[in-house]
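Tokens for chain A. Residues wanted.
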């Protein structure tokens, strides 16, 4: 299934797939393909490539450092309440060391004010063998930061919060902080290096030519997406609330409370040709036949882990692991005995279909 999905991503025609299958039967082609795979995976060739990139950046007035992440631990959560997400906590000596200074808090208590430099790699989409999509983020600290965190749980919590809020602030996403799970593996996915680009002091760029080459390779903008660096003081997590309300999209929850999942609510009606005949009694009623609620629960493995309650004009969906809770008022009374629920494991969505009670049969509230 994974190979089939990869072929779909290539968007190849049937003739191209046939030509590729024929080429794979040729011993010469298979040998050249194997040599190419060995060449791009050779560490010496990777070092040569990085050195060439450094020389090219120096000609443009920049210094560049490649940051190779050293895995330490991996966290599992969800991003924007839609799909699974993994955060890899890594180390590299090129990242700044942790620093602290003594300070006084607002309530007059004296304590340490820590600064935890770190780099952020933009999220990269991945797909597991079953075809499920997920995102991977890398957050890299100095080895001294991780060494101190491994000896103190409070310091480790501060490192995790710094990583989570760094991703949220740097890439404008929302991670589920109430359902974070530490994985047994140290890294999710394949480690990929990032870069830190800095301008050379005193470098003066040459004036652009009057007639630039239209085939010249474009240079990246001033805010490259290869790697984001952060060197801000860290005392605790910082959040930024969106001033604009988002329809059907939940805001971040307080620590310890269940996460309110995103949902979509639709009203469904059935159309008959008799509703369009030329008669006064053929006017279609504005009252829907069904209410369909689609709930995003990307961390849920099975619908058996949820509790679903329907009472008159309210819907309650709740689970403990992961901690989700959605209490939704309904605009119409529904028949709770004829409702249906279906969980799509691949999309992580629970769809609840509730038939609306007719006007002549509205159940009394319990």
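Reply:
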């Amino acid at each position: 299934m994974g190979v089939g999905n990869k072929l779909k991503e290539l968007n190849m025609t049937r003739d191209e797939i046939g030509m590729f299958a024929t080429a794979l039967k040729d011993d010469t082609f298979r040998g050249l393909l194997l040599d190419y795979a060995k060449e791009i995976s050779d560490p010496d060739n990777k070092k040569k490539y990085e050195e060439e990139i450094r020389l090219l950046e120096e000609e443009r007035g920049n210094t560049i450092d490649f940051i190779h992440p050293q895995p330490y631990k991996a966290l599992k959560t969800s991003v924007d309440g839609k799909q699974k997400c993994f955060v890899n906590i890594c180390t590299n000596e090129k990242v700044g060391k942790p620093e602290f200074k003594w300070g006084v808090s607002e309530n007059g208590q004296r304590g340490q004010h820590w600064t935890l430099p770190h780099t952020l790699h933009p999220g990269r989409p991945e797909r597991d063998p079953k075809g499920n999509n997920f995102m991977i983020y890398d957050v890299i600290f100095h080895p001294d930061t991780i060494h101190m965190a491994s000896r103190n749980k409070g310091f480790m919590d501060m490192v995790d919060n710094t990583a989570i809020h760094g991703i949220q602030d740097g890439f404008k996403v929302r991670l589920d902080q109430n359902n974070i799970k530490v994985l047994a593996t140290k890294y999710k996915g394949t480690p990929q290096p990032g870069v830190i680009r800095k301008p050379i002091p005193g470098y003066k760029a040459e004036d652009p030519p009057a007639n630039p080459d239209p085939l010249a390779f474009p240079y990246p903008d001033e805010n490259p997406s290869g790697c984001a660096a952060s060197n801000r003081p860290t005392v605790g997590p910082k959040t930024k609330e969106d001033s604009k309300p988002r329809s059907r999209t939940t805001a971040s929850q307080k620590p310890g409370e269940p996460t309110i999942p995103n949902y979509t609510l639709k009203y469904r009606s059935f159309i008959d040709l008799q509703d369009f005949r030329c008669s006064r009694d053929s006017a279609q009623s504005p009252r829907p036949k069904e209410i369909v609620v689609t709930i995003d629960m990307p961390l849920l493995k099975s619908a058996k882990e949820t509790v679903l309650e329907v009472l008159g004009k309210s819907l309650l969906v709740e689970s403990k692991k992961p901690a989700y809770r959605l209490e939704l008022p309904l605009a119409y009374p529904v028949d709770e005995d004829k409702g249906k629920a279906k969980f799509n494991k691949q999309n992580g969505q629970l769809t609840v279909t509730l038939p609306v009670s007719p006007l002549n049969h509205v159940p009394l509230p319990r």
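The chain is about 20% helix and 30% strand. The chain has a mean pLDDT of 80.
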